[in-house]
TrEMBL record:
Record SMART domains: B3_4
Organism: Dethiosulfovibrio peptidovorans DSM 11002
Protein name per UniProt: B3/4 domain protein
Any one GO molecular-function label of the UniProt entry: RNA binding
Domain B3/B4 tRNA-binding: start-end pairs: 62-219
Domain of life of the source: Bacteria
InterPro entries named in the record: B3/B4_tRNA-bd, Phe-tRNA_synthase-like_B3/B4
Pfam families in alphabetical order: B3_4 (PF03483)
Length: 236
């Protein structure tokens, strides 16, 4: 099993990199008061930002909005995940504690304004690919297990090339239901998307911090990897 990023992605989006945090044997069960406190602290920091009213212009948000436009997607109607988190948080809405791993994703996204998400590796049948959609792949929206959709042709998607199941539409817009993280998840691939102005050094530091949070709160065997245009595949 591998994680692969298509060459078209790097050709179209110069400077893009992905940090992958691989976790094997995590304990994602139960609540964690100290982790919830980290989430509430990250939310408070967002709300105190002087540029919050113009969050769409924050460079790390604006870059993803431009990526969406280049895919022919209106980022106001279909916002990048991190932009949606910032908007919800800025309105005073506390994010729910879903489980420990999802809480960690949200803390990292809010602290560093980068898209961060993960997938349960137990459901993967082939290789995981970030690549251009043909439009024939299957997508089941998160929380809607009885709904079947298909991505648009040319849309960048993250999918399982074994059964053509889409794990995330529009790069980092909305996760699929089949690979969602639950309390019983033990093996997971966590992705941190690094689009300029996020530097390689920034991305490595974020990946390392995320990995340490997973070790502290979930345990397991945790490793950090960087994918870029020179190293576009990772065996998992």
């Amino acid at each position: 099993m591998n994680i692969k990023i298509g060459s078209d992605v790097f050709e179209r989006f110069k400077g893009y990199r992905r940090a992958v945090v691989l976790v094997k044997g995590a304990d994602n069960r139960g609540e964690d008061d100290s982790l919830t406190a980290k989430l509430r602290s990250a939310e408070a920091d967002v709300r105190e930002r002087s540029d919050l009213a113009d969050y769409k212009e924050i460079p790390r948000i604006a870059s993803w909005r431009e990526v969406f436009r280049s895919m022919g997607i209106n980022p106001n109607k279909y916002p990048p995940s991190v932009a949606n988190l910032i908007k919800r948080t800025g309105k005073g809405t506390d994010l729910p504690f879903v489980n420990k791993l999802v809480c960690i994703f949200n803390v990292i996204s809010l602290r560093y304004m980068v898209p961060c998400g993960g997938d349960d590796l137990s459901v993967v049948t082939g290789d995981l690919r970030l690549d251009v959609a043909s439009g024939t792949e299957d997508y089941v929206p998160l929380g809607k297990p009885d709904v079947l959709e298909h991505p648009d042709e040319g849309e960048i998607i993250y999918f399982d090339d074994g059964n053509r199941d889409v794990f995330c539409r529009a790069w980092c817009w909305k996760n699929g239901d089949r690979s969602k993280i639950t309390e019983t998840t033990t093996d997971v691939a966590i992705n941190v998307e690094g689009m300029p102005p996020v530097s390689l050094e920034d991305l490595k530091a974020i990946g390392d911090e995320l990995a340490e949070m997973v070790r502290e709160h979930c345990g397991g065997d945790v490793s950090v990897h960087i994918l870029d245009d020179e190293d576009d595949s990772l065996e998992i």
